Amino acid sequence: MRTQTPPFGLSWLKPLAIWLAGMAALVGATAGPALAQDDRMTPIAIPAQQDAIPLATGPLPGATAPEAWHSQYGSVFARNVTTATLTPFLPDAAKATGAAVIVAPGGGFRSLSMENEGWDVARALAARGVAAFVLKYRLNQTPQDLTAFATSMREMVSRGPPRRSDPRAAFGELAPQIADARAAFALVRSRAGEWRVDRDRIGMVGFSAGAMLTMATALAGEDAKPAFIGNVYGPLAPVTVPADAPPLFVALAADDPLFGNSGYGLIESWTKAKRPVEFHLYEQGGHGFGMYPKETTSTGWFDAFARWLAMHGYMSAK
Q: Dienelactone hydrolase domain: from which residue to which, for each copy (predicted)?
């Protein structure tokens, strides 16, 4: 697949993603006070994942650490993913609208919040008639030992947020993940008939680093072309918006320790380009609230996202 040199600012993308991985792993913002008692990382066996379909991108070049999983905040996370997979969550045929969403969990490209930002989101979409596909994309290698991994995250956070780097280099460093996202779109379109999906009604929603991947997939490639995109607590740096940019949904908590005080350039960029955009700024919620039940209005983001999909016609069959 051919990759364009992106005409938009990506200088924040990879270095900030790496740093926020450490933040998300070490601060209680990921889950909030209700789950603080579960903030320790505990290794677990790799889930069976019988329905996961390996993508055509193959194994991560040069990888030595095998895939591993752990629990934290009452949820499960994957690390050292070396082969990307896509797991379908299909609605009942009587409910199917023909729309589909590729779901990209976050984790700073060093881990993946597979349950809170993946499976739970996909199940909720399928329950409303939208086919969902959880993308387990390849990750940067981290120490195989979980304690060493946690130590590396603390060291990363202690160095503070990175300075901006060359945007072309940052984009190139995301090449494996963008390739995985494109392969996911290709797979869904190739099996659209089997999965009762309309090839032209496939969107993507991502969380944190997954939101970064969603934005890069939508703006920097030629063959994925999401019909719509969702950016849930990802960076909101300004970009150059193409004339045919898809409708954008954004949700962020004002008290997000990573992006709550970094401005709303992305929203302004979409607005100036006269492209559809909906922005929900919640008073509280922290970072990584996902599908966790919390006593904050941020818990309502999914219902808002579903209503937004309905407004654009994706909650009913064509």
A: 107-290
